[in-house]
Amino acid sequence: MTTTDSSATARIPKGKRRMGDVVFTNSARGAGVLILVILAGVAAFLIIQSVDSLRANTANFFTTTEWNASTRETPAFGVAALAFGTVLAATIALVLATPVAIGIALFIVYYAPRRVASLLGYIVDLLAAIPSVVYGLWGVVYLVGQLRPFYGLLETYLGWIPLFAGPVSATGRTMLSAGIVLAVMILPIITAMSRDVFHQVPQAHREAALALGATRWEMIRMAVLPFGRPGVIGGAMLGLGRALGETMAVAMILSPALVISPFLLQSGNQTIAAHIALQYPEATGYGVSALIAAGLVLFAITLAVNMGARFIVARRKEFS
Fold first, then answer.
1. Which residue intervals define the domain ABC transmembrane type-1 in the entry (predicted)?
2. With 90 as the cut, is the pLDDT of residue 77 above it?
3. CB 155 within 8 A of CB 265
4. Which residues lie closer than 8 Å to 269 by C-beta, 6 or more apart?
5. Is-cis flag, bond preceding 230, omega within 30?
6. CATH T-level assignment (fold) for domain 76-319
7. How far is CA 137 from each of CA 41, 134, 310, 316, rounded to the nearest angstrom?
8. Rg of the chain over CA atoms, in angstroms?
9. What does the pLDDT average to over 59-65?
10. What is the pLDDT of residues 135-171, one digit of tens each?
C-alpha cells in the first residue's frame, strides 16, 4: 500500500502538487537559507567590528601572548595564549569524557535492565540541562579543593612527565580542573549520540556474532563498535565544540593568566571565551574591537570543529 501511494505521489505533475506539499517544501528551504544567512551575518559582524583594532595593532595577532588593547596610540595584543588555552581545555575534556560516555552508552543499551537503563538515561540527559554557572560554582567551591591531594600524588609519581610537573597550584584552579568540569558538561552530548548509534546497530549483525560463539563483549567489539564508530566520533566532535565555547564555568575556575603553559597542575592559561567574559565589562574603544577579534578566532575554530563533526556523521551512511 505504501509503495502504491509513493508511486502515485511521484506521478503527480509538479504544477499540480498539493498546497501542503508546496508550503512545507518552501518552509523547509527557507529555514535552511535562514540558517546560512544568520551564520554569514554573525561572521560579517565579527569581521567588520574587529577590523579597526586589527589595523591599529602593533603586534602579531596570532603569535603574541600580550594583551594591551586599551591604549589607542600603540595597542598590542595577540590571541596565541588564549587560543592555546582554549584548545588545551577542550582537549582535556574530550580525552576524559569520551571513554566514560562510550562506557555509559554501552551499559545503557546492552547491559543494564530496562528500568535501570531508563533511569540512567534520564539522569545523563538531565546533566545537559544544568546551567554552566552551576558547574562553575561546583568546580570552584568543591572540586578544586578535593583535587589538590590528587594533584600532589600526580606530581609525586608522574612528575617526570612534563604535563604533570610541579609545583602544584596551591589553589587547585588549574587547567586540569577546568578540563574535568568541561568533561562533565560534554558527557551528556557524547553519551546521547553514542547511545542512539548503538541502538541502530542491525540486529542481524549482533545475532550473527552471537551465533558464531562470540561473548557479549566480543559481539560489541566486532559488530557494535565498528558500526557506531562514525557516530561516536561525530558526537565527540560536537562535545568538543561545546567545550571550546564554554564561558562561565571556565572563567570561574581558572586564574586569569596570558601565558602558554603545558603544565596541567600549575596555575596559568586562559580561554578565549572566558577572557572575553572577564574583560568585556571594562573594555572601551579598541579594547572592545580587540575582544571581538578574539571572538572571531573562536568562531572560526568552533565552526571548523562542527563542520568536521557533520562530515564524520555523514560518513556513517557507509556503515548502514
1. 83-309
2. no
3. yes
4. 81, 84, 85, 88, 89, 175, 254, 257, 259, 260, 261
5. no
6. MetI-like fold (1.10.3720)
7. 34, 5, 33, 38
8. 24
9. 82
10. 989 988 888 888 888 888 888 888 788 888 778 878 8
> Per the structure block, which three cell numbers stand in for 246?
564554554
297's CB contacts (< 8 A; 6+ apart) are: 79, 82, 83, 272
Q: In terms of Cα–Cα distance, which of 312, 309, 139 is closest to 239?
A: 309
As a whole number of angstroms, the distance between CA 284 and CA 213 comes to: 69
Specify whether the backbone of 12 is left (phi greater than 0), alpha (psi in -120 to 50) or beta. Answer: beta
Question: What pTM did the predictor assign?
Answer: 0.84
Query: Per residue, what are the HEC states of the chain?
Result: CHHHHHHHHHCCCHHHCCHHHHHHHHHHHHHHHHHHHHHHHHHHHHHHHHHHHHHHCCCCCCCCCCEECCCCCCCEECCHHHHHHHHHHHHHHHHHHHHHHHHHHHHHHHHCCHHHHHHHHHHHHHHCCCCHHHHHHHHHHHHHHHHHHHHHHHHHHHCCCHHHCCCCCCCCCCHHHHHHHHHHHHHHHHHHHHHHHHHCCCHHHHHHHHHCCCCHHHHHHHHHHHHHHHHHHHHHHHHHHHHHHCCHHHHHHCCCCCCCCCCCCCCCCCCHHHHHHHHHHHCCCHHHHHHHHHHHHHHHHHHHHHHHHHHHHHHHHHHC
Over the stretch 272-314, which tens digit does the pLDDT of each residue have? 888 888 888 887 778 888 889 889 999 998 888 878 777 766 7
Backbone angles phi, psi at 175, to 5 degrees: -65, -30
**Of the candidates 238, 306, 297, 310, which has an alpha carbon nearest to the alpha carbon of residue 85?**
297
53, 286 Cβ separation under 8 angstroms: yes
